[in-house]
Amino acid sequence: MTRVIFLLSILFALNSLAQEQFSEENAKALIDTFFEGFHAGDTLQMKSVLAENVSLLTAHTNSDGKPSLSDGTIDDLLKAIANRPSDQKWEEKLLDYSVQIDGNLAHVWTPYEFWLNGNFSHCGSNAFTLAKLPDGWKIIHLIDSRRREDCK
């Protein structure tokens, strides 16, 4: 009887640990929730997976042809989405997911194509940093690249 109780205790402990593990599927679902909100213009859905102070950057080539890094705010992004004209359709097609997880930190790389009203606009990659916070896993950093050449 003691062995049965011991084995049940171990199984219960392992099950509890497994439920707390953050998986690749969990990371993909978090990113998908962000983009579902992005496509629908639902900033509340997007905010549900964002930390309070998200760092936002874009790596691109400026008009002089020089590499450039631009910073923005998540508030500006959310305002742009909330104020997007109803006749505009923004579609960011994620082409793949590469997920790395270590404890309370995760990184998700997603190459993408961006389409505006059904027309190709640009391509690049998103790099999301996720962290486990007291209220769950959240996006804490987002940097993307943007280009119009070499997209295929």
| Sequence of secondary-structure elements | HHHEEHEEEEE
Instruction: Give the tally of structural domains.
Output: 1
Q: How much of the residues is beta strand, in percent?
A: 35-45%
Provide a count of the helices.
4
CATH topological fold name: Nuclear Transport Factor 2, Chain: A
The helix-and-strand class reads alpha+beta
Which CATH class? Alpha Beta
Largest sheet entry: 7 strands, mixed
Averaging pLDDT over every residue, what do you get?
90
Radius of gyration: 19 Å
Range of helix content = 25-40%
Strand segment count: 7
Distance between the termini: 63 Å
Principal-axis shape equals globular
Unreliable residue runs: 11-19
Which CATH architecture is right? Roll
Verbal overview:
- It is built from 4 helices and 7 strands, in the order αααββαβββββ.
- The radius of gyration is 19 Å and the shape is globular.
- The protein is an alpha+beta fold and 152 residues long.
- Strands 1, 2, 3, 4, 5, 6 and 7 form a 7-stranded mixed beta sheet that branches.
- The chain has one domain (23-145): Nuclear Transport Factor 2, Chain: A.
- A hairpin with a 5-residue loop joins strand 1 and strand 2.
